Records
---
Amino acid sequence: MADAFAKLDSNIASCCRLPLRFDQLNAETRIASLPAPGGTGYKRGAKREKWVLWDPHIGDTGLLETWPEIAAMIAEFPGTPEKVHVGLLTVGEKLPIHRDGLGRKNQKRTLFEMFNRTLRFHIPLRTSDQVFMYADKKIYRMRAGECWMLNNMKYHSAVNAHPKIDRYHLILDMTPTDETFALLAAAETDLGIDDKALFDRYWPGFEML
């Protein structure tokens, strides 16, 4: 199954929580030591900031050497890492509803092939009850230390509605193996809530795509 995996042709869940926990990543200490904006591995987009920990296409940023807990976790995580980064969503920030690698008219965009052959995993490092992930008409809350798979080729978004706490997620794009799919088979797939009022509160003017 893993050898022939193409996300768009699969029936994987939109968003699910895996039977894994990562509570020993020394998150607060390592977050505090991340390079300042403009430093090593740092990238800024229109609505988000991130630090690249692993990306074979741009070379070694050296940041994994400063975060040995994550380096060890990646080495044991089921699958082959394609990209690994820490994503920051600052207080009050919200991402547009989008699909990675695909436009609104299904046109292929940057990194389409990579997103189609990999699975994306989120591990919250710092978060709050006012951080929400939207995926395929459902809204999710992800707790620190949990491990979630997000089908990022379906419509999705995230919002940090907390007035004081920034959200940091460890995000892994992994080429799956049979062990990866075994974990997905044991995942909880019914944790999203269908709450149109909550959706309209944080994504006013958008459709639940």
---
Amino acid sequence: MPETMSKILKSIRNSFLILILLTTNIFSKDIRLPKDVGSGNTYSKSLGSGFKKYGYTIVNKKDGNPVRSGDKSIKFEVRLGDCGKDKPPGKWNDCKNDRQRHELSGERFKGKVWYAYSIYLPKDFKSVYPVKSAMAQFHQKGSWPSLMFQFTDMGYYADRQLGYQTQEMKKLLDTKDMIGKWNDILIHGNFTSKEDGFYKIWVNNKLKYEYNGATTGGKESYFKFGIYHTKVSVWKMYYPEDVFPTQIVYYDEIRVGKSRESVTKNLGN
């Protein structure tokens, strides 16, 4: 083989290997929650850079932290300016789009699945409303979120979306029932673009929302949880003299499975 051709093939091979490494780095899920806290999924940090060390931490009951079951839970914290961005070749930038967050993103999936998580807001929790606050969501690869869980001054809502537009908002909990209390959220869904799709959402073992019909645009879905703020600048329009509050939210029993019992067995449901 001529030396020039050999060099060309070697260059192509090296470029291909670099592309594989970059792709693996972008989409790898290397965070496995302690069995005490979660199961059935692995996660990565939201976006590619800008995730602070305090963004999420595994905490212990022995240190005075709230725990739903067992001895550990996850503490998320978002302070003003906690915006990140994609690593190349991704182009998204929270900082340029008036957003901030600390979330963990799970593996992609399609079809029927059971998801569960428990959420706790500390007694000194401060709302940032009218800034939009998402505390857990189902998103699609490279597309719109299909089901978000939004927190407002009025409570916790299931926000069913289609094509980046809210189709229905269903209140799940009053704000007063979230402060200083654990609440168990259970979702059974068929994530599909077909008409046999559905959502069922239970809160503390009571069915609070049910929908039948297409739930996605056909792309793979993935679950994200933590704290996500949209339109952060709105805060100053309403409260020009106030300091933007730091928010802390705890999660526990974040489980994924093929049956209800597999994701709620530690809760006695």
